[in-house]
Amino acid sequence: MFACALMLGPRRGEILGLRRVDVDLTGVTLYVRQTLQRVDGSLMFVPAKTERSHRRLPIPPRLVAILRRHRATQTAERTGLGDAWTETGLVFTSSIGTPLEPRNVNRRFDVLRKEAGLPWLRLLSRPGARFRCYHRSVSPDRSPNPPYRSEE
Question: Which of 42, 56, 121, 135: CA 20 to 30 A from 8?
Fold first, then answer.
C-alpha cells in the first residue's frame, strides 16, 4: 500500500478505496474511481470528489511487480481463511478482508517512517505533494517534490 502511495501519489482514501477491478496489471493502469472515508462514524465508499479526481494513472514496472506479489499473498490469505474472509473486492484490506481503518494506516506509516529514520511527514498530506517523479526522469531542482535536505 505504501509503495503505491509513494510511487503514484493518490490520497489515502483513494488508495483505501481501490478495488481489484480498478487495477489493470496487464495494461499497467490504475483507475481512481472511489474513496474510503469515515462519514458520521462509519466507513463508507464514496465517489472520488471531483471530475479531476476520477483519473487514470500509469503504474511503473516496479510497482506492477509489487502489486502482483500482493495479489498472490492476498489470494492465499483469502483461500486459507475460507468463510472467515470478508470479500470486499478491495486491493488493500485487513487480514480478514475488511476495509482498512484510515487512522491505523496513518499509525503504521508513522512507525515505518520512524524505523527508517525519516523526518516527520504526513502520508499524502496535500494534493500537490505527490511523488510523481518516481518513474520519470526529473531534475531535483525542477521536481514538484524536491528531496529532503537537512538543515545542517
Answer: 42
Alpha helices in the chain (DSSP H): 2-8, 12-16, 61-81, 102-115
The contacts of residue 83 (CB under 8 Å, 6+ apart) are: none
Integer Cα distance of 11 and 17 in angstroms: 10
Amino acid letter, residue 101: E
Of 65-69, 105-109, 122-126, highest mean pLDDT: 65-69
**Closest by alpha carbon to 1, among 56, 54, 50, 73?**
73
Residue with the three cell numbers 482514501:
13
